[in-house]
Amino acid sequence: MSAAISRRSFVEICAGATGAALVAPYLSAATPFRIGITTNTRGGWEHDVLLSFREASEAGFRNVETFYNYMLPWWDKKEQLKDIMDGLRVKFDTVSNGGPMKMQFEDAGLASQIIDEHMKLVRWIKWFGCDHLKINTGARRAGGTTKADMAQMAKTRNAHQ
Known about the structure:
3-stranded parallel beta sheet, mainly alpha, globular, TIM Barrel, 161 residues
């Protein structure tokens, strides 16, 4: 004899099954999209990047994004970090820029330093298989962003080394 299912439980089960059926094609290996999580957005994760990777993995995420400053302790230990991440079954989607990097892309006087720092980060994340860099531009000026700022930001971002 089986236990009776309430109408509420039946509706919840049906809704869950329908939702899973709708989402499943987007999570398959054939999809061009990677689903991931920025791992420093939850209280406590910003103090322990490995905890953030572990909890993201336990929740089912396989791709993570973090920020440059969280990777500084691992900068010269890429192989060790990769082994840990492999054990957790997570990969980097990217590692975004951030402090202490310069991010004032509108400042032509900082362009060379900005390009050098960002290319260093690009080379580091490429070793992990990342194919893109997500860039943050830092705080806006008090007076707002001007057309000249936007033009300089584009020039710096489009510079090649």
